[in-house]
Amino acid sequence: MNEAHHSNKQTKGTLTREKIVQTARNLFYKKGYHATSTSIIAKEVGVSEAALYKYFKGKMELLLATVEPKWLDFQEENHYHDLSDHELLHVWTEELLDNVFYNRPQYTILFNESAIHPELSEQYIANIHRMSFADQELIKRMDEESLPKLDLILFQVGIIGALLAMITHKRIYDHTLHLDEFPADIRHTIIGIVEGKLFK
Question: What is this structure's pTM?
Answer without folding.
Answer: 0.86
